Amino acid sequence: MVIEVLMPALSPTMKEGNLAKWLKNEGDTVEAGDVIAEIETDKAIMEVEAVDEGILAKILVEAGTKNVKVNDLIAIIAEEGEEIKDAIGKIQNSSIKEEHAIQNNKTEISVDIEAKKAYETLNHNKVKNKVEDEPNRVFASPLAKRIAEQENINISSIQGSGPRGRIVKSDVENAIMHSSSQNFETNIIPNRDLEIPVTNMRKIIAERLVESKQQVPHFYLDIECFVDKILDFRSDINSSAKLDESDKPEFKISINDILIKACALALFKNPKVNSAWYGDKIIQFGNVDISVAVAIDDGLMTPIVRNANQKSLIQISNEVKELAKKAKSQKLKPEEYQGGGFTISNLGMYSIKSFYAIINPPQSCILSIGGTREIPAYGKSGNLEKKQVMNISLSCDHRVVDGATAAIFLSTFKRFVENPSLMICY
């Protein structure tokens, strides 16, 4: 029996991946469940397991090969004692039969296609012969000629798109743009000493961000939150942590952990924001699963804190630290980064005042958190005081979330942030 090892689809959106490493060599015995290879996806490095026992007869895709398409044949496992040549032969014969079937199908269609081509060629030759009778004449509209002359463009070098190859205004404008881009590339970017190959992760990130900005109608809301109470709240909690055997605190809550909890409770109280767009329907999530943006060497990953509204600050803190560690080593499992309902991105640690993050479809919102800064503000006594303030921005998909709904969510979030003791009640 011959077992085909195919490039697996390790996530619903995966179309291709990199074959990072083979953990078994040709001729090695494998058991069902043995890890035989590592695949690098756009999110993580995943393991490929053998589905049955046998001999790894042939490796067809070498380690380090990039952009291997899903379902491509990467290796062959044969039964113990089966000749490797016979195993490979069976695969090749199967492929040949499939190719013959495809070719036969193509042959059946080719008669109609050839007839159509013959008709098109006849008409094309009629037009061509007529044009060739006037070899020195340039067919162009007066406006196209005038623009070409003004821009010092040789109009005879332009391919026309009008009737009978006539050069029109748009053809000249396209030629001008093409000429400008060539000049920019030649004159403005002369130094090409460093070329950085686009990794599979960066390629997928680029595709999804472009898709999001083109297809999702973003709108943005800003709010300022006073965080003096959160800073004191965090200090009180951390000071209560017991020391372990190494004299280190058992836990250390961050501002981000508290903001995740505040966001989770605000989502729980405003479920319309905890929703996603699925074309013909909007899905409102029953759980509050928050994706937390984590910067890694080649991009960004968003591991998920599940049921964040039900977890304590210590649980959230420990979970975020563990997920971030896995993300940076590309060891996240698919269930640890797929399926979040809302995303938080925090750039406050880089002294960024505010920013507007791009929504991660099909999610409807992403919360952008800036750094804290000190400002003068009136206190309860009516006197000016120094206060710590933080800018919060919310990017929303207007197909799912309306402006008033988003504003109410932000107000709820602000109330929890500025009164962190309220979070203890939930």
Structural notes for this entry:
This protein is α+β, with helices and mostly antiparallel strands and 426 residues long. The protein contains nine helices and 18 strands. It has helices spanning 84-132, 142-150, 169-187, 200-215, 228-239, 255-269, 313-328, 334-337, 403-418, and strands at residues 2-6, 16-22, 29-30, 35-40, 45-49, 54-59, 65-69, 73-78, 218-226, 275-277, 282-284, 290-292, 294-296, 299-301, 304-305, 342-346, 365-378, 384-397. The strands form five sheets. Strands 9-18-17-16-12-15 form a six-stranded mixed β-sheet, with helices on one face. A four-stranded antiparallel β-sheet has the order 1-8-6-3. Strands 5-4-2-7 form a four-stranded antiparallel β-sheet, with no helix packed on it. A hairpin with a 4-residue loop joins strand 10 and strand 11. The radius of gyration is 31 Å and the shape is flat. It starts with a strand and ends in an 8-residue tail after the last helix. Residues 130-134 have low confidence and may be disordered.
